[in-house]
Amino acid sequence: MSLQEKYCIIKTIKHAFSSKVDITVDFGMEINFSKEFETVEKFTSVVDALNYMSAQGWELVNSISSGTILELHHIMKKRSTE
Protein backbone atom coordinates (compact mmCIF):
# COMPACT_ATOMS: atom_id res chain seq x y z
CA MET A 1 0.00 0.00 0.00
CA SER A 2 1.22 3.47 -0.81
CA LEU A 3 0.31 6.73 0.83
CA GLN A 4 -1.82 9.02 -1.30
CA GLU A 5 -2.86 12.59 -0.64
CA LYS A 6 -6.46 13.64 -1.15
CA TYR A 7 -7.37 17.30 -1.42
CA CYS A 8 -10.49 19.33 -0.81
CA ILE A 9 -11.45 22.99 -0.79
CA ILE A 10 -13.57 24.55 1.93
CA LYS A 11 -15.17 27.72 0.58
CA THR A 12 -16.37 30.22 3.17
CA ILE A 13 -18.52 33.24 2.39
CA LYS A 14 -19.12 35.78 5.15
CA HIS A 15 -22.28 37.82 5.00
CA ALA A 16 -21.73 41.58 5.20
CA PHE A 17 -22.88 43.17 8.46
CA SER A 18 -23.43 39.73 10.02
CA SER A 19 -21.48 37.02 11.80
CA LYS A 20 -23.10 34.36 9.57
CA VAL A 21 -20.82 32.33 7.31
CA ASP A 22 -21.88 29.96 4.53
CA ILE A 23 -19.58 26.97 4.16
CA THR A 24 -19.36 24.62 1.18
CA VAL A 25 -16.92 21.79 0.55
CA ASP A 26 -15.54 20.52 -2.75
CA PHE A 27 -14.05 17.02 -2.62
CA GLY A 28 -13.90 16.80 -6.41
CA MET A 29 -15.15 13.50 -7.82
CA GLU A 30 -14.52 11.68 -4.53
CA ILE A 31 -17.74 10.25 -3.09
CA ASN A 32 -16.27 8.58 0.00
CA PHE A 33 -16.36 11.80 2.02
CA SER A 34 -20.12 12.43 2.05
CA LYS A 35 -20.39 12.28 5.88
CA GLU A 36 -17.62 14.84 6.33
CA PHE A 37 -19.19 17.00 3.61
CA GLU A 38 -22.61 17.04 5.31
CA THR A 39 -21.15 17.77 8.76
CA VAL A 40 -18.88 20.63 7.68
CA GLU A 41 -21.64 22.46 5.82
CA LYS A 42 -23.71 22.61 9.04
CA PHE A 43 -21.13 24.79 10.78
CA THR A 44 -21.57 28.57 10.88
CA SER A 45 -18.01 29.28 12.06
CA VAL A 46 -14.90 28.89 9.90
CA VAL A 47 -12.86 27.88 12.95
CA ASP A 48 -15.36 25.15 13.89
CA ALA A 49 -15.26 23.78 10.33
CA LEU A 50 -11.44 23.78 10.19
CA ASN A 51 -11.18 22.19 13.66
CA TYR A 52 -13.63 19.47 12.63
CA MET A 53 -11.68 18.73 9.45
CA SER A 54 -8.43 18.60 11.45
CA ALA A 55 -10.01 16.07 13.83
CA GLN A 56 -10.91 13.96 10.76
CA GLY A 57 -7.26 13.88 9.67
CA TRP A 58 -7.26 16.81 7.22
CA GLU A 59 -4.43 19.36 7.24
CA LEU A 60 -4.75 22.99 6.17
CA VAL A 61 -2.39 23.64 3.25
CA ASN A 62 -3.28 27.23 2.34
CA SER A 63 -6.04 29.82 2.53
CA ILE A 64 -6.65 31.96 -0.53
CA SER A 65 -8.80 35.05 -0.94
CA SER A 66 -11.06 35.05 -3.95
CA GLY A 67 -10.48 38.76 -4.36
CA THR A 68 -12.99 39.92 -1.78
CA ILE A 69 -12.67 39.98 2.00
CA LEU A 70 -15.92 38.07 2.28
CA GLU A 71 -14.90 34.87 0.44
CA LEU A 72 -11.99 32.57 1.28
CA HIS A 73 -10.94 29.18 -0.08
CA HIS A 74 -9.16 26.85 2.36
CA ILE A 75 -7.17 24.09 0.64
CA MET A 76 -6.86 20.96 2.78
CA LYS A 77 -5.16 17.60 2.31
CA LYS A 78 -5.48 14.19 3.89
CA ARG A 79 -3.07 11.29 3.62
CA SER A 80 -4.70 7.95 3.01
CA THR A 81 -3.64 4.44 2.15
CA GLU A 82 -5.28 2.92 -0.89
List the main descriptive attributes of the protein structure presented here.
82 residues; 4-stranded antiparallel beta sheet; 2 helices; globular
Task: Describe what this molecule looks like in 3D.
The protein is of the alpha+beta class and 82 residues long. The protein has one domain. The chain contains two helices and four strands, in the order ββααββ. A four-stranded antiparallel beta sheet has the order 2-1-4-3, covered by helices on one side. A hairpin with a 5-residue loop joins strand 3 and strand 4. The radius of gyration is 13 Å and the shape is globular. It starts with a strand and ends with a strand.
Ordered list of secondary-structure elements with their pairings:
Layout: E1 3-14, E2 21-26, H1 34-40, H2 46-55, E3 59-65, E4 71-81
Antiparallel strand pairs: 1-2, 1-4, 3-4
Briefly note the structural class of the backbone: alpha+beta
Number of helices: 2
Count of spatially separate domains: 1
Biggest sheet statistics: 4 strands, antiparallel
The low-confidence runs, each spanning 5 or more residues with pLDDT under 50, are: none
User: How are the strands of the largest sheet arranged?
Assistant: 2-1-4-3
**Which of globular, elongated, flat, extended, rod-shaped describes the shape?**
globular
Number of DSSP E strands = 4
Rg value: 13 Å
The fraction of residues in strands falls at 35-45%
Organism: Mucilaginibacter gossypiicola
Protein name: DUF4177 domain-containing protein
